[in-house]
From TrEMBL:
<keyword id="KW-1133">Transmembrane helix</keyword>
<dbReference type="InterPro" id="IPR010621">
    <property type="entry name" value="DUF1214"/>
</dbReference>
<dbReference type="InterPro" id="IPR037049">
    <property type="entry name" value="DUF1214_C_sf"/>
</dbReference>
<dbReference type="InterPro" id="IPR012038">
    <property type="entry name" value="UCP009471"/>
</dbReference>
<keyword id="KW-0812">Transmembrane</keyword>
<keyword id="KW-0472">Membrane</keyword>
<feature type="transmembrane region" description="Helical">
    <location>
        <begin position="37"/>
        <end position="59"/>
    </location>
</feature>
<protein>
    <recommendedName>
        <fullName>DUF1214 domain-containing protein</fullName>
    </recommendedName>
</protein>
<dbReference type="Pfam" id="PF06742">
    <property type="entry name" value="DUF1214"/>
</dbReference>
<feature type="domain" description="DUF1214">
    <location>
        <begin position="105"/>
        <end position="206"/>
    </location>
</feature>
Amino acid sequence: MSDQNRLPFSAYSETGWQDEKLPPIIRPHRSHPIRTLASFLLVLVAAALLGIISAYLIVEREQPLDAVRLGPWAAYPNAGTPEADPYSVAIYTRGAVIPLAIGEGLALTAREDSAGRELDPTCIYRIAGQTPTARLWTLTAVDGRGRLTETLPGRTHLVSNALLRDSDGTFEIVAARDPKSGNWLPLSANASASDGLRFVLRLYDAPVTTGAALDGVSMPLIERLACP
């Protein structure tokens, strides 16, 4: 074979064929070390920012993740126990909230009525039915961030042992700004719709302190009666 017809050695090597045979987009190439380091740092910073932002949004929502839903009510039986998830612990810590221990009772929170509408402190609500068995329970109205508000009579709660009941043990409570006959739960006198509203039902010395025990229990309905 003459020298003119002989192919260069690169044509037969394991690396030379890549320069001619493969399309440019998939040809292997060696990145510059500085560019590789910059890309790694960019991915690292983006991942850290994404983690921080997602954690902040979860903590800011002020709703623990391990909720047990009972109609409009949500219970958090793992709150204050070693089984509580880290986000729930952060939410309670940030809000300076001390959850009830298992031996003390259970707190249930409603942020919506039984029709799924967000609670509004300017509206009037009817809370009726019965609660799980407990030695004592309280029903409290707080704003959307869980804070007590100023009401006309100066109180924001009702206690079960001072409640008017029907002969079958059921009760009916009217939550409103202005005084109502019967069981009246005062709402904030000067609140606006944007302030939000929650009903917090705390059961003390109750057997339903775990998620399994809450299955199938009867909870009060929350009905919106009127809004301005």
